[in-house]
Specification:
The protein has 263 residues and is of the alpha/beta class. The chain has one domain: Rossmann fold. The chain contains 7 helices and 10 strands. The strands form 2 sheets. It has an 8-stranded mixed β-sheet, sandwiched between helices. Helix 5 runs parallel beside helix 6. The chain is globular. Bound molecules: S-adenosylmethionine (SAM). S-adenosylmethionine binds next to helix 1.
């Protein structure tokens, strides 16, 4: 089941049941761009507390953020989420394109803080932790897989680079593969993932691709003038992105029927 809310997440989160969400992935405004939705700090204790309340004991929380002089959301947010959640690890995503002036290191990274609700009961999908594109040269007798395990530095995923009229919808859109990796490691099919800063719905697309349910919240509309989705709520854009998956061959007839029933 997919649920889309065009609303402020601080209004919607309180109506979600306790212990009902299997995992949470969020990409809140970092306050680093000139976009209209990127002006206000939205990460606070109330957000962390609400996410903790609705999460199941086995849940993970992934929080995308930045580190550096201009992008220090990691430093601001880590102490806030750590009040409720158990901090597990930091994933660094190595991007292809760099940012920054000539006096300093070229900035080519983004971070994701991984938290769990309960360090003894969190779910980890062991069979998904091998990179099926990265074969070992040889396997030792006690190695379970012929593939290498994912590390906490991800160098193999390129950022979205299409034009605003094709595959790219949002200025800070995450690649689907990045979100799919978090989903596959921390949930199984038919479980529910929540993203309360949904933007163009990358989390919903990743859920559709991996057969998970999704709750997506975003309070704004697309204000990118050159976009064919100008003035349309982000959650409606997300719905359309998910709908196009119905036309691909990735899903079985059964899955398509299940997804179709949502529209
Ligand atoms: C960094 S963007 C997310 C981009 C998304 N990951 C994607 O791939 O398209 C953050 C989003 O949070 C939304 N937002 C900001 N404050 C919000 C709030 N209080 N409730 C719901 N959505 C909010 C903005 O409209 C923006 O689309």
């Amino acid at each position: 089941m997919f649920k889309y809310y065009h609303d402020d997440c601080f209004k919607i989160l309180p109506i979600i049941e306790d212990n009902s969400i299997d995992s949470i992935i969020i990409d809140p405004p970092y306050i680093t761009t000139s976009e209209s939705w990127d002006k206000e700090e939205v990460v606070n204790e109330l957000l962390s507390e609400q996410l903790f309340r609705i999460a199941k004991q086995s849940s993970s929380l992934y929080v995308w953020c930045g580190i550096g002089e201009k992008s220090n959301s990691l430093c601001r947010w880590l102490p806030i989420f750590s009040k409720h959640w158990h901090f597990k690890d930091l994933i660094t995503w190595k991007k292809q394109r760099g940012l920054g002036n000539k006096k300093g290191w070229l900035y080519t990274r983004e971070e994701c803080m991984w938290f769990v609700k309960d360090n003894k009961k969190f779910f980890w999908n062991e069979k998904e932790q091998y990179d099926k594109k990265d074969k070992r040269l040889f396997t030792m007798p006690n190695n379970k897989s012929e593939y290498k395990r994912y590390t906490n530095v991800w160098t193999d995923i390129e950022e979205e680079s299409g034009s605003m009229k094709s595959s790219r919808f949002h200025f800070t859109q995450k690649p689907v593969e990045l979100i799919e990796r978090c989903i596959k490691l921390s949930t199984i099919e038919d479980q529910t993932v929540l993203d309360c800063f949904g933007g163009s719905g990358t989390t919903a697309v990743a859920c559709a691709n991996t057969k998970r349910n999704c709750i997506l919240i975003d309070k704004n509309i697309c204000d990118i003038k050159q976009s064919s989705f100008y003035n349309i709520p982000w959650v409606d854009i997300a719905k359309q992105r998910v709908a196009t998956i119905l036309n691909t061959n990735k899903l079985t007839e059964y899955d398509k029927k299940k997804l179709c029933s949502l529209f």
